[in-house]
Each structure stands twice: as structure tokens, then as C-alpha cells.
Amino acid sequence: MRFMKKLFYILLLACNFAHGEASLPALTAEQWRQDLEFFANEITTKHRDPFHFIGKAEFDQAVSNLRQRIPSMKDYEVVAGLQRLAALIGDGHTFLDTSGLYERFPLEGFWFGGDFRVIRAAPEYREAVGARIVSIGSVSIGEVQKRIQRFVPQGENQWYVLNSSAKQLMSVEPLAALGVLRGPGSADFTFEDDSGRRFKLRIRPVPAGASESGEAAIEPLPLPFQHPEDALWFTYLADSKTVYVDFRSYQDLETQSARLWEYIARHPVRRLIIDMRWNQGGNYTKGREYLIYKLIFMPALNRAGHLFVITGRGAFSAGMTNITDFRRETEAILVGEPTGGRPNGYQENHLFTLPLSRLRFSCSMLRYRFQPDSETDAVFPDQRIDPDWSLFRAGKDAALQWILATP
Fold it and tell me: Signal peptide location in the record (predicted)?
């Protein structure tokens, strides 16, 4: 989770730099079978406990089934089949790296209860922003969500599934492999706005690895959904003398946190909010060193009612770990959804590349116990606040609003 995950991102950057954007490989059936054998051996010998979620016989049968079907499959279907095998292992650190691999529909969706709503879209599909997706092609979004579970590890928890499935639902080739689409390409989406009006848009996919910059977002966009590319950013809410910090990743944390502490030292700050709902991980020792251990010795902020940490479905790996640290080491009140990562589970990435297709995979090397006295499947907040669409469309965030209303 710490050093291997950091290395993972370095390797991805190096690979993309050296070889350009990834693309779907085209192999013969025999070549795919060779890669499948390599994959199955690597997963079952390098994972800390490959059968902690799925039984060995069931996994072996799934591998055998894919091997038999390969001659009749298209390349993208084989890739999706390998992605499914990785997901069967059950934990979120065992996966196919799909960055730059699949085309995607230029929409960003978010689950508000049972509604999957568009919160960002390419400018030409601005009409869809704020609407809920009713169906993709002729398949209802509920059915699409059920099918997409084949590519989502099921051994973490329901909040991990919500977060991961929202991304998977916009991946073109997996949708085609599941029979939602007849094949990769444009698709008719049906939407419904808040007035109950239904409308269709034909959505064209964008190439694998295409930038998401320039996409239109709902306006006004709630504070926690702003600046998604920034590792750590903060702002001052003068009315309540609150500093809001959006802590998404550990990149350059030493420098970014120094800016934060310098700002707090020069301004009247009554309340500090650290939002970790999107933090997918990195080196958790850096979170301890530059944030948690600093806060321990700030008595004006490190006390009940003055320090809050927002949790959520996107908090995973090192992000989840540092949330447990805040609970244990500080007086922080945790607010929001449960985390997407299990506090006691499989982490640390063993990285490997299939020899012929060059597809990149990860599997978990270690098992951690960050809540050894509890076997809950998530870190549960002190105050449960789920996302609320009525607040979101007004430019507000439910968890943040609850904190700001706290005396």
C-alpha cells in the first residue's frame, strides 16, 4: 500500500512516457492462452492469499472457461475476461490497470442513493448534467449496474462497489463485452431530469487515455467536487473561521502541508475540516508525518468540535489507513459515508506485466489489520451523512453542511 503503490504510479508514468498511451492488444488465440497461463500462475503464487474470497476450484474453473472460449472471442472480450478473473480474487489491490486501455463515454456519474446522475460531461452533452441515467441502449441502468459487478472486486464493501462501478459504467469495451452494447462505439443514453422529462442523447466515446479537462460540471459545483486533479488544496471559509482541506493524494505532501500550516498560523482558524473521501492511497506514513503528528500538538484545533475528517466511498488503501489514524491519535470527529476500503484486508501491490499483450496487473502482497479489535468491512464515521442530491444541485455538500452547522 505504501511504497509499492507509490512505485506502481511511477512505473505507470514511465511506461506511458516510453510507449505512449496504452491500447487494446491484438493477439492470436494461442498468444492469449499463453498470457492467461502466466496471469493465473502469477496471481495464485504471488498474492498473499489468493483464495481468501473465492475458492480455488471456482477460480480454476473460471480460468478454464476463459481458456476454452478464447478462440471465439474478440480481443476486447479477452481483455475483459482477464479483468473479471482479477476481480474474482475479491480485494481492491488486485486488478487490471485499465488506464489508457478502454475508450470511455465522456460523462462522469455519481450514485445518489439508487440514482446514477451525471455530474460532469463533455460540453456537447451539457444537457445531461444533473440528469439521472435511465438506460444505456435498451438496458436499464439498474441492470447495467448488476452486470458491471463482474469487473468490480466484491470482497471490499458496498461503498467500494459504488465508487468503482461509477467509473466502470462509462468504459466502452466492458459494456460491449457484457452485451449492454452491440460492440464498441456510440450508444444511445436515456436521461431523466428533475422535472420528470426524459430525453435521449447519442454519446460518442472518446479515445483511451483522453483528457477529462474541459468537461462541463453542474453549477454551482459543491466545494468537495472542485479541483479533482489537485493532490491537496484548501480554502478559508471566513464566516465560520473554517479551513477546508481537500486531501486527495500524497503527491508532494510535505510541501503542500507546509503551505497549509503556514496559512493556519497566520489566520484566525476556529475549525479545521480535512476531507479524505476521495483519497485512494499512497504512503500512509507521509499522512502521519505531515498531517496527523502535526495536529496532535495543535491544541486549539485538536479538540472535539474543532477538528473534523470527512470520509466516504472513495477513501481506500492509505487514505483509509490515515482515517483510522485520525480517529485513534486525534480528537477528530469523522463525518460522511463509510470508507471504500476495509480496515483489515489485503494491500500492497505486486505488479506484473503479461509477456505478450503487455497488460499490466496488480495483486495484493500483504494483509494489514488497522482495526485489530474490529472485523467491520469499513471505517464507519461517527456521524453518518450520505450524499444528498437536493443539496448537491444547490451547490452544497451534505457532510460539509452538517459540520458547518455544528456549534
Answer: 1-20
